[in-house]
């Protein structure tokens, strides 16, 4: 696939924020011409489908400023520097829901928007949940919502859940559970 590769000619950092940065690169395209690429750099994240013994999923409601509405999502958060994805998932589950899990399964990792962002999302199922301390970040206000997995899947169909990581996580969890039942 080398014939599709683009080569960076120059790179300029446009913005450095709390957890993202933006750069503008000039690249050589496969046909020899040049173009520009604007890239959002993100440290990566972990997302969790927390399942109870009755196949209920713990979701969170959260105001999302960028879309100016409340979003229903699976718990998730960004990786801290040098943090392993599983450690991040465990921390975020406790912070956002007040639960910890005895059993963890990595489902998959994916890039949410590789056309302009390098964020890699690591997706887990958490089972055998136990009570832990909920300690959301100071600027994070979340409200847990416990629903049967089937109801969460219906919320995708009705447009109540529109967050990509949540859709992927819930569908993948349902697929895994179905495979376990077969």
Account of the protein in words:
The protein has 182 residues and is of the alpha+beta class. It has 2 domains: 2-41, no CATH class; 45-181, Nucleoside Triphosphate Pyrophosphohydrolase. It is built from 3 helices and 10 strands, in the order βββββββαβββαα. It has helices spanning 85-97, 149-157, 164-181; strands at residues 7-16, 21-28, 34-41, 45-50, 56-64, 69-73, 76-78, 99-111, 120-131, 142-148. The protein has a 4-stranded mixed beta sheet with strand order 7-4-9-8, with helices on both faces. Helix 2 (149-157) crosses helix 3. The longest helix has 18 residues, at 164-181. It is globular and about 55 Å long. The model has no long low-confidence stretch (mean pLDDT 94). One of its GO terms (cellular component) is cytosol. Pfam families: NUDIX. This is NUDIX domain-containing protein. Its cofactor is Mg(2+).
Report the span from N to C terminus. 38 Å
Biggest sheet: strands, sense, closure?
4 strands, mixed
Radius of gyration (Å): 19 Å
How do the strands line up in the largest sheet? 7-4-9-8
Précis, in short:
The chain is α+β, with helices and mostly antiparallel strands and 182 residues long. It has helices spanning 85-97, 149-157, 164-181; strands at residues 7-16, 21-28, 34-41, 45-50, 56-64, 69-73, 76-78, 99-111, 120-131, 142-148.
